[in-house]
Amino acid sequence: MAERPVEPLHRRLGVTDEELDAIRDRLGGRDPNDLELAMFSVMWSEHCSYKSSKPLLATLPTAGAGVVAGPGENAGVISIGDGLAVAFKIESHNHPSAVEPYQGAATGVGGILRDIFTMGARPIAVLDALRFGDPDDARTRHLVDGVVRGVGGYGNCVGVPTVGGELVFDPTYAGNPLVNVMAIGLMEERLLTLAAAPGPGNLVVLFGSTTGRDGIGGASVLASATFSDDDPSKRPSVQVGDPFAEKLLIEASLELIERGLVEGLQDLGAGGITCATSETADRAGTGILIDLDAIPRREPDMEPFEVMISESQERMCAAVRPDRWDAVREVCERWGLPVAIIGRVTDDGDIVVVEGGVDAGGQPGPGAREMARMPAAALTSAAIVHARLAAPPQHRRAAPAPGAPIDPSDRLPERGMDPGAVLLGLLGSANLSSRRAIFEQYDSTVGADTVAGPGRGAAVLRIKNTTKALVASTDGNQSVGALDPYLGAALSVAEATRNVAITGARPLGVTNCLNYGDPTRPEAFWQLSEGVRGLGDACRALGLPVTGGNVSLYNESPDGSIAPTPEIGVVGLLEDIGRLVGPAFVTEGDTILLIGESTPGLAGSAYAGLAGTAVEDGPPALDLAREAALQKFLREAIERELVASAQDVSGGGLAVALAEGAMWSGLGARVRLAAATSPAVELFGESPSRVVMTARPRFAPALMLLALQHGLPVEELGVVGGDHLVMELTGAGATGASEERGSRIADALEVPVADLRHAWDNGLVRALGWEG
Amino acid sequence: MTVRIGVVVFPGSNCDRDTMHALAQAGAEPVGLWHEQAALQGVAAVILPGGFAYGDYLRAGVIARFSPVMRAVTAFADEGGLVLGICNGFQVLAEAGLVPGALLRNRSLRFLGREVAVSAERLDTPFTHALSHAGPLRMPIAHGEGCYFADAATLDALESDGGVLFRYVDGAGAAAAEDDRDANPNGSLRAIAGVINARGNVAGLMPHPERAAEAVLGSEDGAGIVRSLVESAAKAVAERRVTVGMS
Known about the structure:
The structure holds two protein chains of two kinds.
Chain A: H1 9-12, H2 17-26, H3 34-43, H4 46-49, H5 54-57, E1 67-69, E2 76-81, E3 84-92, H6 94-99, H7 101-117, E4 122-132, H8 138-158, E5 162-169, E6 178-188, E7 203-208, H9 218-222, H10 243-258, E8 264-267, H11 272-284, E9 287-291, H12 304-309, E10 315-320, H13 325-334, E11 339-346, E12 350-355, E13 369-375, H14 376-379, H15 412-415, H16 419-427, H17 436-439, E14 450-452, E15 459-462, E16 469-475, H18 478-481, H19 485-501, E17 506-515, H20 522-542, E18 546-552, E19 556-557, E20 560-561, E21 565-574, E22 591-595, H21 606-611, H22 624-639, E23 645-648, H23 653-663, E24 669-674, H24 679-684, E25 691-695, H25 700-709, E26 714-720, E27 724-730, H26 737-741, E28 746-752, H27 753-768
Parallel strand pairs in A: 4-5, 9-12, 17-18, 24-27
Antiparallel strand pairs in A: 1-2, 2-3, 3-6, 4-6, 7-10, 7-11, 8-10, 9-11, 12-13, 14-15, 15-16, 16-21, 17-21, 19-20, 22-25, 22-26, 23-25, 24-26, 27-28
Helix pairs in contact in A: 7-8, 7-10, 8-10, 10-13, 16-27, 19-20, 19-22, 20-22
Chain B: E1 4-9, H1 16-25, E2 29-34, E3 45-48, H2 68-78, E4 82-86, H3 88-95, E5 102-104, E6 112-120, E7 137-143, E8 147-149, H4 152-161, E9 164-168, E10 192-196, E11 202-205, H5 223-238
Parallel strand pairs in B: 1-2, 1-3, 3-4, 4-11
Antiparallel strand pairs in B: 5-8, 6-7, 6-9, 9-10, 10-11
């Protein structure tokens, strides 16, 4: 075999020639040594530096009522009154989970929890948004099993309930699953702690687990490069989690914050000690001198670069006043955590790594060797930013305008499909069936705050000793995103916020996990930029701040890129838990209303997936002003106590929304709707900004009037009751059998509620082969 | 006067705060008992809460039983003090031999978090007397090792001596079959969800009454268990069976 020339070190570390030049610029023209290059390589990775996405993210709205901390901090923090604030963030752990699903998912949970308690908040909930390939595929099943066990194994032990999330199957994720985890914390606002290392002379203290060789280059190797199958050589890059250590870390960190013993706190995630020290120094305008020998290690003979970029889990870094060191040490030792002074805050703005001893005063002693010296800013805020090329794919069709002529092929009878059978097929499908087999493996009630757990719309957590509750949802729409990345992102925001608003809560803010392909490919970068534009427009229309999130690029496999997947997490505040509205029907005889109207376009819908409808008809349009009006109406209607139940129309359309209200209450319904378009659109179309509501009959007129006052179309559909779901279509869109039967009513669907429930209960276990 | 009830805090306990909240709701003063201290600070009763004590890496509860605080808890129980173990606390009590039997891995070999229905077999104990009815009581379970096991002789003795405190029940309210995955999800022998020792002062159960003690959480059925313990502890103090324990 011919010898290949050895690649220069920087390229092997993922640093391009252009980036090496930029590093030299920031070092006054000199070459970085090997240790410095290793530190730059992790800090300038896509994962840590946001070097491709930063210009796009700068366009997002970040200001909003009550925002206490926004993007750039470990988590967004929003005030909720009573001196309390909520901290929340979503983050990806896609590539580690593809290599080693259990540890990848487990450390994904651990990492996002640290982002929350670093701010001074006690984590109170986790939501996990999981996306995999075809459920029939053996590899998918292996990944699902491992990821679910990993989420549970970590979250259950650490004592934070898993209260919601998503599980989506789509062939687009066959080579590159997505594991996005959102965490929510509750805090006293006065305890807000920032990730900064202020005060030259202060001690830099590392506590938690010791530092080992696990997770070397996780940020650069795994998170920031295109993925080629499950390459075993990448396995050492996956971090290993210890939820027991994390639990101790939570308690110790919150005690340190509560007692005012730390000046700043940062968790160690991607980039390890290098990232934690450079970011905290840069934020405070200080420098840090790191005493390499003082870092507690779990194995001998580690190279300096390994110590500096290790991503060993469950570690925290604090800036501590020297007079508080004894108290800090006592807290950590009581919780059984190793703790050490690993450096000092300096005033020169540099990150300096010293080997061979630092004296008691924090100065390098005689015989000490300076191993690395770089401006903290060069590693973080002044890292390189790339102007990437964006170009739409050449064969792209625009979505049809609302009201475009109806494609007759949408008409069910012509397709020979029985609407009742279609509904059962949708309810039993891998994506719409009950997720119980998954979420039963999670502790969803620890904390004694869970009012509504996983499985039925938004999660609801009461806030002890108040009348308030937090409401949270995660949503992402990849199937529309594949056709129109702008619309896919805007729809994701609309759905996630609607799922929160529909309980009566006021959405507070948005966190996002942007899962896209290789940004150096113009088409993938165009998808990202369109996604960010859609995210920004939707948030502005709804008056919501984006308080943080995470960007995961290079989600590609040899089979191609994933569909653009903006995963949106929303947290809302319900002022009075007594007014919480759920999705299940409540009382026989209640009036059923549909707010909003259906518009044509079946592409990207669950029905299209099931029926094989051509993609060419385009997805439905989204009117953001209408969505904002709908959400305002929802809050007002619930505030006035007019609403018995409310469910948004999303996956599977109106028929599935009604079926859910029926299954979850055991009450049937009889509805008749005017089919303005086609039966498929009316029954199964997923046009947004629609809600099914039920109300006591005497409240229905007031509710309808309120909807009209908000400029929203409203239609009385029928009545709750019986043990069947009966749907009838009338009017121009109703077709086929009607004339033959000599009736104006056509396309009727009549299914026992028990059958709906049976299909829904058993769909997922069947899809995954978990029966028996 | 408020009765003081201790809640043991092991490293890895994660239901200690929930349990303290439920105790406070029931009118007691919760007192955290740190695992390294073999002293109970004069509390009138002790709860071992749920969680993963010391990480539960070897086997649930097996390390916790050797902790200093368990020496004090064992001595307290030997003197007749009231001790309740919930979930991981039940596992610790079983490992320590303070209640009979063992908790094995769930039959499914998976962690299970869901609501179950149990029925109290006795309403004359310090842990159940305030329940308004025997059941079904709806409470969550959340455990990986909750399959109650003992040899046949022990099980028979438990049955005849009133040692079975709670049993999983099916939709009809009858004791669940061992293979009824829906009603007895961890596969416990004889559907046993909770037991009480022969002296009647130490009990353990797998379901979480502290998570089902307020209407807003969807069930108040666990509140009667918490209230029973609080009232029994107050009575013990009043009868001077415990000399300190009120504040």
